[in-house]
TrEMBL record:
Subcellular locations according to the entry: Cytoplasm, Cytoskeleton
Assigned GO CC terms: cytoplasm; cytoskeleton
Coiled coil: none
Residues of the B box-type domain: 145-194, 226-268
GO MF annotation terms: zinc ion binding
InterPro entries in alphabetical order: B30.2/SPRY (IPR001870), B30.2/SPRY_sf (IPR043136), Bbox_C (IPR003649), ConA-like_dom_sf (IPR013320), COS_domain (IPR017903), E3_ligase_FN3/SPRY (IPR050617), FN3_dom (IPR003961), FN3_sf (IPR036116)
Residue span, B30.2/SPRY domain: 549-733
UniProt-recorded name of the protein: Tripartite motif containing 67
Claim: Ribosomal protein is one of the keywords in the record: no
Domain called Fibronectin type-III: residue spans: 472-567
Species annotation: Poecilia reticulata
Domain COS: 376-434
SUPFAM superfamilies given in the database record: B-box zinc-binding domain, Concanavalin A-like lectins/glucanases, Fibronectin type III, RING/U-box
Superkingdom of the organism of origin: Eukaryota
Length: 737
């Protein structure tokens, strides 16, 4: 709370604080130091000291008091003096005409009227809180000053002998005779003696404006009740009403004079109780948030230690395991270690940032709460109402800062990473696995299962004689010797190493998207073997499995990596072919029993990458027009390929060829086919092109804007043509675009 009780100009505890229209406070003496005089005819300020709250920021295009270039408070008279807090101060102003004061906190400016600084209300509540705070903590009081010095002496100021109430300036005898003679326009000014140090100390103790020094024996003075606040315009009248329109306490004479005739005026005591109630209610919400913030800080600090320990343990394990691998895994070890270090540094940075941010907000909130509680202890209605609106707004704004999620950790202490060398020495020789047509099933190309044996040993080590009650199933163990890939399909097998106390009801198998993306469920059931079809060619999939029972879902198994075939092996599909299509040679050769064109599709489906296959012309009679290309699975099969909007094809005779889609014929090219010719089809879903070859030479290419989705190889032919399908081919090089 101490920050709330210090002046923003001098940096010390408030002495005789005055309340500015912007609801901020400054010491009376500091207010004199930052008061500046503007040239006649210019009005750079937007509000008056008479209590108006309609103030705005200064127009920086004009000659304003605040300068962004020097980061201080400008003046028409250069001055290099600064307060301990870095706020620029100015020489004393002799007269209040065309004078203004800029708030050192919000930089809003207010002009002074003929009353000068006396036009600002004195914050008596803040004075009393400062005194009580200093006394309870034994802080030496700085509000009992030595004798007041003259404010106009050029060098070595002497003790002031008088003070002008209108000019609000202290004079010595010489300066008073020279600068403020009692004649002419100054004859009506009232000169009074300045307060003595003893009077200042006594007034501070009794009036709440300062702090009494330690008396004999170091005893603290006893605070007496402060007298009720009096009206600024009618000093003999006490505040008795509150103007809701002006948001200021007023006396009865102000009402009689008609200054607040059309305003909403209510009794002072009623508004005092109402505003106290509002502030108390707002504090309740902030108090709960502060309590949660303290508990959250403890949680974050404990998490720091956990992250440190887990990170060090994981790094040591990672280094020890990677060092045991052969030279081919050396580079992979460095990459994995870098990932762990980055993960740890990221988690630590996030938690430290949360601690710093939360600590700062908690300190601000706690200080404001303590200050508000001290304000609530005061029994001065008028003084309370002077600052209650601003405090209520601050408390409400502070509560809004603790939004949902602000008191939740952004990261967890655990590292969701695992690594082990089990089976790695046996499988590393298969890293360059190349699948051929005659070798359809082989172990995984890439296989890395972390802590498989150690996890099994831990589960088997549980004592069978202890009944722990129903529990979720343990993590299944993937059987690597039974896991394999074939073409664009993958088969996985698993088992449970320890019986669950509650029978297993089924398993959930998940695969990612082949690019390291999110996992998705591909199988849910009781079987322990599953084959997944329709995967992308030349892609690596991460797979994991978990078991579930009546109690709940168990943990995941270790992750296994599945590498699909680099090239596509497929045949003609008898299930989707037109009934007139005749297949032979293990569904690799196709002809037709009808003179009309009929469509047959392949068994493979493509959605990404580049794929190439060829069709050999085994028989070619009477110059028919077979078509070759790709199609959707639901393309029409009783017409030539490419006549609907679901197929893209090249149809060719013995002399020339055309590209056709949606019955539109384009890209005519010279050159045809005959018996023994070979037609190649290259589908590039990355570049969105379809390229054709005749006898190994590029014959044409078509680009598509809408070539997205799943495509299957397709051929249309009649009884005059017989073709044989060739697959598993490498993509041709040096394709012309």
């Amino acid at each position: 709370m101490e920050e709330e009780l210090k002046c923003p100009v001098c940096g010390s505890f408030f002495r005789d604080p005055i309340l500015l229209p912007c609801s901020h406070n400054v010491c009376l003496l500091c207010a004199r130091n930052i008061t500046v005089q503007t040239p006649d005819g210019e009005t750079p300020v937007q509000s008056r000291a008479s209590g108006s709250s309609d103030y705005d920021y200064l127009d920086m295009d004009k000659m304003s008091l605040y300068s962004e270039t020097d980061s201080g408070y400008g003046s028409y008279t250069p001055c290099q003096l600064k307060s301990p807090n870095g706020v620029r101060v100015f020489p004393p102003v002799a007269q209040h005409r065309n004078c203004s004061l800029t708030c050192p906190l919000c930089h809003r400016s207010v002009s002074l009227d003929e009353r000068g600084l006396r036009g600002f209300p004195r914050n008596r509540l803040l004075e009393a809180i400062v005194v009580r705070y200093q006394q309870t903590r034994g802080i030496p009081c700085s509000a009992s000053p030595s004798a007041v010095k003259c404010q106009l002496c050029d060098r070595n100021p002497v003790v002031a002998t008088v003070m002008c109430e209108q000019c609000d300036v202290y004079y010595c005898n010489a300066c008073q005779q020279r600068c403020h003679p009692s004649r002419g326009p100054l004859a009506k000014h009232r000169l009074v003696p300045p307060p003595s140090p003893n009077q200042a100390a006594g007034g501070a103790a009794s009036g709440g404006g300062g702090c009494g020094g330690g008396g004999a024996g170091g005893r603290q003075p006893v605070l007496t009740a402060r007298k009720a606040g009096t009206c600024v315009d009618h000093e003999a009248e006490n505040f008795s009403m509150y103007c809701c329109s002006c948001k200021a306490p007023v006396c009865m004479k102000c009402l009689e004079e008609g200054k607040h005739a059309k305003h909403d005026v209510k009794p002072l005591a009623v508004m005092w109780k109402q505003h106290k109630c509002q502030l108390s209610q707002a504090l309740n919400g902030v108090s709960d948030k502060a309590k949660e913030a303290k508990e959250f800080l403890v949680q974050l600090k404990n998490m720091l230690q956990q992250i440190q320990e887990n990170g060090v343990e994981f790094e040591a394990c990672l280094v020890a395991q990677c060092d045991s691998l052969i030279e081919a895994l050396t580079r992979q070890k460095a990459k994995l270690l870098t990932k762990v270090t980055k993960e740890k540094e990221y988690k630590l940075k996030v938690v430290r940032d949360q601690i710093t941010h939360c600590t700062m907000k908690l300190r601000q909130t706690t200080g404001m709460m303590e200050y508000c509680l001290e304000v609530l202890k005061e029994n001065d209605p008028s003084g309370f109402l002077q600052i209650s609106d601003a405090l209520i707004k601050r408390v409400t704004s502070s509560q809004d800062q603790w939004v949902k999620g602000a008191l939740e950790p952004k990261v967890g202490p655990d590292f969701d990473l695992s690594l082990n060398t089990d089976s790695l020495m046996q499988t590393i020789l298969q890293l360059d696995f190349c699948q051929g047509k005659d070798v359809q099933e082989k172990p995984l190309l890439k296989l890395m299962q972390a802590a498989a044996d150690s996890g099994e040993a831990e589960m088997e080590a549980e004592s069978p004689g202890v009944d722990l009650g129903p529990a979720v199933p343990v993590a299944p163990l993937l059987q690597l010797e039974k896991c394999c890939t074939r073409n664009n399909s993958a088969t996985l097998a698993w088992r449970v190493t320890a019986p669950a106390s509650c029978p297993i009801e089924g398993y959930i198998l998940e695969l990612d998207d082949g690019n390291g993306g999110q996992y998705r469920e591909v199988y849910v059931g009781k079987e322990t073997v599953c084959t997944v079809d329709g995967l992308h060619f030349n892609s690596s999939y991460n797979a994991r499995v978990k078991a579930y029972n009546a109690v709940g879902v168990g943990p995941y198994s270790k992750t296994v990596v599945l590498k699909t075939s680099d090239v596509a092996w497929f045949t003609f599909d008898p299930t989707s072919a037109h009934r007139d299509i005749v297949l032979s040679n293990e569904n690799q050769t196709a002809t037709c029993s009808s003179y009309d064109d009929r469509v047959v599709l392949g068994t493979a489906a493509f959605s990404k990458g580049s794929h190439y296959w060829e069709v050999t012309i085994d028989r070619y009679d009477n110059h028919p027009d077979p078509a070759f290309g790709v199609a959707r699975i639901n393309t029409m099969k009783e017409i030539m390929l490419g006549k609907d909007d679901k197929a893209w094809a090249m149809y060719v005779d013995n002399n020339r060829s055309w590209f056709m889609h949606n019955n539109s014929h384009t890209n005519r090219a010279e050159g045809g086919i005959m018996k023994g010719s070979t037609v190649g089809i290259l589908l590039d879903l990355t570049k969105r092109t379809l390229t054709f070859f005749i006898n190994k030479e590029q014959h044409g290419q078509t680009a598509f804007e809408n070539l997205d989705g799943v495509f299957v190889p397709a051929v249309s032919l009649n009884r005059n043509v017989q073709v044989t399908l060739l697959t598993g081919l490498e993509v041709p090089k040096n394709i012309k675009q």
